[in-house]
Design brief:
Length: about 300
């Protein structure tokens, strides 16, 4: 898989990291109205970092909320600089190799999957960081079109709406790289060994997303991985670095735009879920949060 697709693969990390979650607030709903103290309303919308046409066929409610907004706030800009940053960070420095880090047996399994299903030469796999190999295996093994986040950015620019990133590519990379190497290697091992299941789970994940069922998105992976209890610490590390810390950071950065009103915040749907999610954090900060149910076109 081309390295330029790595940014889009974060959805698999978020789902797998949150797999052991229990029922918590904000279990359902993708589009939310956010307001307080007479300020103009803003909206928060949960995306999925996939390119399926059903996900990019936006409901009338989403289209209207975006059209009425003055700024689109996104996790990261979909541009050449961001893709270049991911490509560079995905490669190990000279003198290091994934074969050495993972060990011969685990490396051969990973390299075989990447070669057979993504067309990645073994020599290129040698240079990948563990997280880059994991992210690659977390995506469907086919060419990827325009993902939901990129489609929203394109539409906003066409309408003259400012597009504002909540994070830089380097910050996202730092979050992924902060997961302990041993934990990431354990996750990579399971992803390669159970790749058929992981790919099949993406279809179920998308179906739950289209139903606005955030809890179902999490439970989908909980069922698939319930026989991998040794991965508990790895998933906990991943959950903290990729979901919890980034949700808190994004809330702090969206607040000034929410204060002005007229913001449309588009972030991964699982950032909306639960006590540590963006919606709960906004409620605790005094914002009124109300779900808008969607009608699919």
């Amino acid at each position: 898989m081309p390295l330029r697709r790595l940014a889009a693969a974060l959805v698999s990390l978020l789902v797998l990291a949150a797999g052991a979650a229990v029922a918590t607030p904000f279990e359902r709903g993708l589009l939310w109205r956010v307001e307080r103290d007479g300020r103009p309303a803003s909206h928060v919308y949960g995306t999925i970092h996939l390119d399926d046409a059903r996900a990019t066929a936006f409901s009338p409610q989403v289209d209207a909320a975006l059209a009425a907004s003055r700024a689109l706030l996104v996790e990261m800009l979909d541009d050449a600089d961001s893709r270049s940053a991911f490509e560079a960070a995905a490669r190990l420095p000279p003198g290091r190799s994934l074969r050495t880090l993972a060990g011969p047996e685990r490396f051969e399994r990973v390299a075989s999957r990447l070669s057979e299903r993504y067309g990645l030469p073994v020599a290129a796999t040698e240079r990948l960081t563990p997280w880059a190999a994991y992210l690659t295996l977390s995506q469907p093994p086919r060419p990827q079109g325009e993902i939901v986040d990129a489609a929203l950015q394109r539409i906003a620019r066409q309408r003259g709406i400012a597009v504002v990133p909540l994070e830089t590519a380097r910050e996202q990379i730092a979050s992924i790289a902060a997961v302990q190497t041993g934990h990431m290697l354990a996750l990579l091992e399971v992803q390669a060994r159970r790749h058929d299941e992981a790919v099949a789970a993406i279809d179920t994940l998308l179906a739950r997303y289209l139903e606005e069922d955030l809890d179902g998105m999490l439970q989908n992976e909980e069922l698939a991985l319930q026989d991998e209890p040794s991965l508990g610490p790895a998933f906990g590390d991943l959950f903290e670095q990729i979901l919890v810390r980034r949700s808190a950071r994004m809330v702090e950065r969206m607040r000034p735009r929410l204060e002005r009103g007229g913001a449309f915040v588009a972030i991964g749907a699982l950032h909306l879920h639960g006590e540590q999610g963006v919606l709960a954090l906004l409620e605790r900060a005094g914002w009124r949060v109300q779900r808008i149910e969607l009608q699919r076109p």
